């Protein structure tokens, strides 16, 4: 996914980055990003400053609760906390990688890797799940 960095909140090695995605169906999202460069709050990143265009992959991490929901549930992603990568999701399971990881379609975002903090039991491909976590970005090389 391609987008432009709108805002960066830094705290040590962790970043919360607001990206305006060029796909108008996605819009602006806040993502968690772990960097190898240490920054003080308010300090800008050298390799990826505000205004930079980036190609990213997104995933959902730190998921510790999930629930199978009805097939009629609408797939969606909400970020109700301002300037936070926290995300509430309803998604369709398209692949189970292992007991801790699966791939889901979340509305307009397809093939999103979802990493759970606990083993995922009783979930099958084709089912819809509701869960909460952090939206994480990785820069495409």
Describe the structure in brief.
The protein has 141 residues and is mainly β. The chain has strands at residues 2-21, 28-39, 53-63, 66-69, 76-78, 86-96, 101-106, 109-116, 128-139. Helices cover 0% and strands 62% of the residues.
Give a structural overview.
This protein is 0% helix and 62% strand. The protein has a 5-stranded mixed β-barrel. The mean pLDDT is 93. The protein is mainly β and 141 residues long. It is globular, with a radius of gyration of 15 Å. It has strands at 2-21, 28-39, 53-63, 66-69, 76-78, 86-96, 101-106, 109-116, 128-139.
SSE layout and pairing:
Blueprint: E1 2-21, E2 28-39, E3 53-63, E4 66-69, E5 76-78, E6 86-96, E7 101-106, E8 109-116, E9 128-139
Parallel strand pairs: 3-8
Antiparallel strand pairs: 1-2, 1-3, 3-9, 4-9, 5-6, 6-7, 6-9, 7-8
Number of helices: 0
Distance between the termini: 12 Å
Record field, number of beta strands: 9
- Low-confidence segments, given as residue ranges, are none
- Portion of residues in beta strands equals over 45%
> Taking Cα atoms only, what radius of gyration do you get, to the nearest Å?
15 Å
Mean pLDDT, all residues: 93
Order of helices and strands: EEEEEEEEE
Structural class by helix and strand composition: mainly beta
Strand order across the biggest sheet? 3-8-7-6-9
Helix content: under 10%
Biggest sheet statistics: 5 strands, mixed, barrel
Shape: globular
């Amino acid at each position: 996914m391609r987008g432009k960095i709108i805002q960066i909140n830094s705290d040590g090695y962790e970043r919360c980055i607001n990206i305006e995605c060029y796909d108008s169906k996605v819009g602006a999202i806040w993502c968690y990003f772990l960097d190898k460069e240490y920054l003080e709050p308010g300090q800008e990143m050298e390799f990826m400053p505000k205004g930079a265009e980036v190609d990213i992959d997104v995933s959902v991490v730190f998921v510790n609760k999930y629930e199978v929901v009805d097939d009629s549930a609408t797939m969606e992603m909400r970020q109700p906390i301002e300037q936070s990568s926290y995300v509430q999701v309803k998604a369709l399971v398209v692949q189970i990688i292992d007991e801790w990881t699966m791939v889901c379609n979340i509305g307009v975002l397809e093939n999103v890797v979802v990493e759970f903090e606990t083993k995922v039991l009783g979930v099958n491909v084709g089912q819809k799940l509701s869960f909460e976590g952090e939206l994480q970005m990785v820069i495409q090389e």
